[in-house]
Design brief:
The chain has 251 residues and is α/β, with parallel strands linked by helices. 41% of the residues lie in helices and 19% in strands. It has one domain (6-242): Spore Coat Polysaccharide Biosynthesis Protein SpsA, Chain A (Alpha-Beta Complex), CATH 3.90.550. The protein is globular.
């Protein structure tokens, strides 16, 4: 990690797995939409990944692209941990390279981060946000989790499960990522950060189902892990509530 961190600069962390058909369009979209100085960290697991040759060609045009092999092994979470370690900016965005999310959202996320928010969530479900396509059952569960998050967990976001988030580097001095599955790790970070007192906000974003390539989302395998962190968050809030009210009720 570079010691020369910069608050007027962001790192976009992009974990990839055979995104050769999407990555060029993704990078051009990012370069045409994001108006803040930034670096793009493409994190891959294995040397045969078809994303690599495309990125190598684009690196000749875009000098802010860094192609980095996962240093912690393989898998989505380890790739993102590699990105957090190798990033040079104070503000870091994690987003998949599958064209599902709108890169222009990063501009608004950064503006909110400058106001003092430690995590800015891109939300499909707040006013102005949209979801286009996607698995119906998965979407219903995600929306339910988002709508109940402010009520049951006390966290000010309507899109708890969305992996597209901006983080202030300082939160990782207090948070250890325990997740071992997939995108639920962003939910874990958000919930832990909230109960540690970090400031959280959201901004509307549009998500659309990928039109090319195969989704890497393992719904059945990862669902129990989402559920675990959701109820872990509820238990934390319950403990805070009991600690606040039980002494007075005993008296």
């Amino acid at each position: 990690m570079s010691a020369n961190l910069n608050k007027r600069y962001i790192s976009v962390i992009v974990p990839v797995y055979n995104e050769g058909t999407n990555i060029a369009k993704f990078i051009y979209g990012l370069e045409n939409s994001v108006n803040i100085k930034h670096e793009i960290l493409i994190i891959y697991d294995f040397d045969e990944d078809n994303t690599i040759p495309v990125v190598k060609r684009l690196k000749k045009k875009f000098r802010n692209i860094k192609l980095i092999k996962n240093i912690f092994g393989s898998g989505l979470i380890k790739a993102c941990k590699t990105g957090f370690k190798k990033a040079n900016a104070d503000f870091m965005v994690v987003m998949p390279g599958d064209l599902a999310d709108e890169p222009k959202t990063i501009n608004e996320m950064y503006e909110m981060a400058k106001k003092g928010y430690d995590i800015v969530c891109a939300s499909r479900y707040c006013k102005g946000g949209k979801q286009l396509g996607g698995n119906l059952f998965k979407s219903l569960l995600s929306k339910f989790a988002g709508l109940t998050t402010p009520i049951l967990l006390g966290i000010p976001t309507s899109d708890l499960t969305n992996g597209f988030k901006m983080y202030n580097r300082k939160i990782f001095k207090k948070i250890n990522i325990e997740s071992q599955g997939g995108w639920e790790f962003t939910m874990e970070i958000l919930i832990k950060a909230h109960f540690l007192g970090f400031k959280i906000a959201e901004t509307p974003s549009t998500w659309k189902e990928r039109s090319s390539g195969k989704s890497k989302f393992k719904f059945i395998k990862w669902l129990p892990k989402y559920i675990y962190w959701y109820f872990w968050g509820i238990s934390q809030r319950s403990k805070l509530f009991l600690n606040k009210w039980m002494p007075s009720s005993i008296e």
